[in-house]
Amino acid sequence: MLDSSRPDPLRSQLLESAAKSGIRHGFFTRMGGVSSGIYGGLNIGTGSNDDQDLVSENRRRVAAWMRVPAEALITAYQIHSPDVIVVRAPFPGERPKADAVVTDRPGIAVAASTADCGPVLFADPAARVVGAAHAGWKGAFGGVLENTIAAMEGLGAQRDRIVAVLGPSISQKNYEVGPEFVARFVQADPENERYFSASANAGRLMFDLNGYTVDRLKRAGVTAAQLGRCTYAEEDLFYSYRRMTHRGEADYGRQISAIALEDA
């Protein structure tokens, strides 16, 4: 049974080392929320069909854990793009469309909403610049990771000081893809063939989104790591879009990963 008392997010040792610089982060699970049914737990998906009052309460709980006001928990309107926005205050109206958010202002938690795609949290503790990216295959392939790093540099970060951690996302053994998908990656770079392995189903392959993401981060010149947690397999902890489709369920929840600068 999901604990409805309070969130207790996963943390990365790499990012925890930045805590002494006043950087707080969490890869939130389903634990600690008030939603029920297929959304059971800490569903923060404003785009889901869950009761939006419950979603708002879940987001308030996340913001409280991050030690920011509810309106300062910032997620963009995610569209699987390479686009990044710089945030220095809560959005006054509708959320802009983008897939990464960066800030250099204390008291704002930038975040990514996911349900199999990869949430990546970034920090330059020395420059006190942080970011969060939603990196599914399309965003990672299109450059959202590199664009996030560039946007952080625009705020004074240096890429050789940036640490980036990939949170819970779908693992290779649960991510089956077709030949057109594989062709897209191999045509872009023949070396990408190493991210695919054989499937039990003829004509299909298994894609290592996590390895692809971390390798792109490393090639971009930042220190990168991953939690190695699978959203599809760990049903008690994570929502999964692909698990929902395989079961024929009507909808799915979303988890959130957030990072914030605390007052120095």
Task: Give short descriptive properties of this protein.
CNF1/YfiH-like putative cysteine hydrolases; 24% helix; globular; alpha+beta; single chain; 264 residues
Description:
The protein is an alpha+beta fold. The protein has a single domain, classed as CNF1/YfiH-like putative cysteine hydrolases (4-Layer Sandwich). Helix content is 24%, strand content 22%. The protein contains 7 helices and 13 strands. The strands form 3 sheets. Strands 3-4-7-6-8-12 form a 6-stranded mixed β-sheet. A 4-stranded mixed β-sheet has the order 1-13-5-2. A hairpin with a 4-residue loop joins strand 6 (118-124) and strand 7 (129-135).
**Count of strand segments:** 13
CATH homologous superfamily classification: CNF1/YfiH-like putative cysteine hydrolases
Strand order within the widest beta sheet: 3-4-7-6-8-12
CATH-defined fold name:
CNF1/YfiH-like putative cysteine hydrolases
Number of helices: 7
Shape: globular
**Rounded Rg:** 18 Å
User: How many structural domains can be distinguished in the coordinates?
Assistant: 1
The averaged pLDDT comes out at: 96
Helix/strand/pairing class, anyone?
Answer: alpha+beta
Just name the CATH architecture: 4-Layer Sandwich
Query: Which residues form runs of ≥5 with pLDDT under 50?
Result: none
Strand-residue proportion: 15-25%
Main beta-sheet strand count, sense and barrel state: 6 strands, mixed
Order of helices and strands: HEHEEEEEEHHEEHEEHEHE
Helix content range: 10-25%
Q: Tell me, what is the CATH class?
A: Alpha Beta
